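This part of the workshop introduces the protein records we will be handling. Each record describes a single protein and holds just a pair of labelled lines. Instead of coordinates, the fold is spelled out as a row of discrete tokens. To make this concrete, we reproduce a full record directly below:
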Amino acid sequence: MADPLSVTLAVITLATALKDIIELGQKIKESFAQVSKNLQNGKRLAFEMLDTLYKLQKFCDEHYAVLNASTEMKIALQKLAENMKSVYMDCCKLIPPLPEKRIARFKITFNMWKNGDKVEGLITELKNHINGCHTQFMATLLVVVQQSNADGVNILRREISEIRVSDQQLSAFAGASSTTMSKRPSSITEGVISDMYLRVQINAINESLTQLSTMSIQYVAEPQEQYVLPFQPLLDTSFLPRDRNALHRDVVNRTLEVQALLQNHPSTLSIQDGAWEMVNLTLGLYDLNMYEEAAEMGLWAVNLFRTLVAVHPDIYTPYLIHALRHLSRFYQEVHDLDGAYTAIEECVEISRGQQTHLTPVQLRIQFGGILTTYGAFVSVKEGPARSLEVAEEAVKVFEDIFQFPVPLSPDRPENVLEVDPDFLRKLWSEEMSEKAICDYARAIRQLGFSLFDVGRVKDSIAARITAFTIFHDVCLRYPDSSMELELADILFNMREEAFRPFIPRERLLPWLDECIKIYRKYAQWNAEKHGRSLCDALWEKAYVLGQLERDAEALEVWKETIDLAKQLVADQIYLADVLYQVSWSLRTLQRHDEAAMMRTESVKTYQTVLKTTSETEADGYYDLAIDLRLAGRFEEAIQAAENALTQYRTLAFANPDQFTKKVARGLTTLANTLLSAGQCDTALNEGYEALALYEKLIHMDPGVVPQYIFSLRINASAALVSDNEAKSIERTKDVARHFRALSVQYQSEVGLGAADAELNHACNLERLGRIEESSRCIQDLLGKWKDTYGPVDTAEAAVLYIDCSITYACILDNQGHSDRALELMAKSIDIGKPFSAASPSVASRTAGSMYRQVHLLRELGRYPEALHASKETMSFVRHTPLEQLTDFVGSLHAASLALLYSTRHDEAIETAKEAVKVCRSVPMEEYSRKYKDALLYLPRCLYSLSAGLADSGNKAEALTYARQAPTYMDVLHNLSVCLLANGDVAAAADILAEVKTFLEKQLKSRTGIYTDLAVVLHSAGVLYCALGRHEEGMAAAYELSILQARLATVFPSLARQVKLVMDHNMKRGSTQALLQIKHKLECRHQDEHWPDNIHLQAPT
């Protein structure tokens, strides 16, 4: 069965209830139509009550749909109506109509006068009830709109703050319904309601003062005792920055006391009390972060003291100066810099006018403090030189008071962090107040700031350290005083980058820890005021730890900063900034997935707050793309890079001068990301657009040179792996052109970039089989090196020159000119060794030249020299740090083959095993992820190990290792040898056929491969005949004899090299199986017939 009350309320509409209430309010007002003068205050309250009812009606009309659906709202109105009926009936009894007869009229008038206070109390309570309904309705509406309309919430908050109440308690202000308030949104906390209530009280004070200012009153009373005493404006202890709730209660009590003072008849007494209280009230509001209210009340405090100064200037002027100084600070917090500057300027002018040789010490201290504040302001208006002038005057005032100078000029730079210990002793021996000593420290601190602004860095440090020493001493004498915050501020401001030559980063950490300790304590008492400072200090500590490469510790501090920012800092942009910084730290630690996760959260936070295209969000997507690429999440990275580019293009459309370079940067990052994803052609397209933009930008903004160079390198990298031959070659050629053009005007920035670009172009030609063109490019580069790039006298030049030499040597070797390649490697070794001890990069290139020298000596049949060179190489790589692990493996591989060719099989096997072990190590696995070419070293090392085992007679194990090697042409021939040694003739012949086909294709550009092809043809011919495939065997033998004859005629040196390789191959233990098969052949198809004009010398 339905509740009767609910049924009744469902029928009654909100409009009907409001109409009845308005009628009751009008009747109450009419009951005061003809009352005596002693009830005029009650009449005024009745009029105000009706006006409040009209405001409630207007609010309900504006939000009718939501409020009409609320049964609770109707119940609240019903209770209000019942209360109004009761008040109306009581008013009718207490204020009956006046009769005609005089005696009766007198009796009723007397009763009305006697009941006046009771009537006023009834109307006041009714008005409070109406205000409570208004607030209750707003809270109910906030519950509905908070999730869908944040702007609506803010509007309603403003409406609540505009409610006019007198001095009713907060519970009445918040509304009578505890049920409604328990359902309020989480954002409408008790603190928010308390602040609203306090703002209402401030508005009431403002109204009272406004009315007071319109009245013509003469203030003639004598000053009160507190003003006659010597000037000593100490802060009331109730405003110590501890528990915010307690502070809030204290400030509310202050507002009520001020209201009580102002509600009395204006007099000199109330103005004196009010002005004194107003100063303390403004400071309390300031500590509550209610800066606008502090500024509003601060202005009234100044005006009140101006009024008092007009009567007794000698007594009240110091207090006017005091109020003006605080007002300047309040204006600064609300970003009214003009108002702040005007206030402090007047403050200085008045205070300076009071300074004579008879001025009391307290007023001189006040003047010094004012100059300190003025020094901070004047820097913005009149420049740092004027600021320093004012700051020095402030310090001079205190020096004259204390009668000794500040020690600010250390003789040696290392003394910059030291303070004369006698200074503190003298400071406290002068029997000055703690405030005077602290003001002296503040003046010295401001002097430090001003000195820094004019570039006197060391003197700035000395001043700040002196101020720090004073504050630190004060805090030791007075623990838990508010001076701790000033101490923390000084410590925090010692982080200036310009201080680093004098203050090591390691020295900063204990200072920051002390700073964090102080801010953490105060943030527990007042998170709103000090939470941001705590997070800032943690941020700086994390940054310093990162600078010291203590990245894991930095990351932990960043994580704490995130947690605290979420709890203590309302600014979501700040939180996004912290998340952004954590991403950098994670990237440094190579924790790229986590970095991408943090960066994603940061970007989403920026999106939530900014809502429109912004540089901040675009930069976020840009860095997110890099994090995702480093994490190997290429598709997501491409999407992020495209988002960044889209936003940069939008921004550039409105402001091309500022954002075109970011479009170019975005294109480069997109190209790099596409390259990592294997989309080389698309990367080349994006890279081309980036280069076109940079080619134009460089004429307008030389600052883009580093980004331009990076873009050129990305273009070259994409070209070097592209399968599109025409586009690839054209791009490396174009990159070289860009570098040459850049180096004309920006040689210091480009350095050897043009030479590197030409080398890349030559390598690209070689990669695509255009060997002759590649050879000419490198020959030209090496030939003009000295004239174009100067002597090879730096590590950077040595790296590039050796790279060129190694590339050219490989081409020469592949073309059969191993002797010329050997000369190049010898020269490279001579160039690299002097730089190798100090440069791992050069050491790697030197090692690369050394082990290639070993290979070349072996290929030329100079086995003893190869063995000796391999020993030197291994000694070098074992005792010299190398940049690239592959150069160590390459040296082991070369040494194992040198030992093998010298028939030192056991040593060759052990060396090869070490090489294989390194190839399968974790460091090599990680290295291979970044440098894919490193994967080629394992099969080569397995080949040398298998060959060594085969030559030593261990056929089965040799075959095992040969089969472990990935399919790679350099090692397939060895596999065929091992298969043959283990009796599988057919499989060996099939592999040789595959190798032969591959080598014949390579001969078009690499004539040096004839050495390998000759060995394969000889082996294949023998096996074919052994298998009865005599026609194929005869063809292989004929092809070998033609090869020998042609080389003997056109390339004798290569012909000799082929003969050396074949002779050595016949002497290897692993080829004995082949020789045995050959000796058993009766067909005689494989008999050797070398041309008569080949004369061989025995290997030395």
In short: Residues 766 and 774 are 5 Å apart (CA to CA). The chain is about 75% helix and 0% strand. The longest helix spans residues 116-145.
